[in-house]
Amino acid sequence: MPETVFAKIIRGEIPARIVHEDDRCLAFHDVQPQAPVHVLVIPKKPVENVAALDGADEALAGHLVLVAAEVARKLGVGDGYRLVFNCGRDGGQSVDHLHLHLLAGRRLGWPPG
Ligand code: DGP
Question: Beta strands 25-29 and 81-84: pairing type?
Fold first, then answer.
């Protein structure tokens, strides 16, 4: 998979406001926030998107969700938030490195645009 800006963030070559890091993932504030709290949780392993996950990634995918919930609690929005994986261009994906959006801090509309 072609390298993305997120690979550079993982290597520390581009600055990011990191809120969580462990051996498998990184969470940092989105540079174009769509809500008062907008954090991206990404795997360190290069995976393009949800469609590129396979059975061996099951624990990793679950880990991203649990980390997002932990970050929400840490940032004081644990009572209400939205988690979103955009997949593919029609799904709104613009960066081809798997990322889980954590959105919170305002009333979120439904359906999404
Ligand atoms: P998506 O559209 O689902 O692929 O979301 C990609 C998100 O990544 C988008 O909300 C903006 C964010 N983003 C893109 N480049 C950077 C960057 O260099 N730093 C940070 N922190 N976020 C970025």
Answer: unpaired
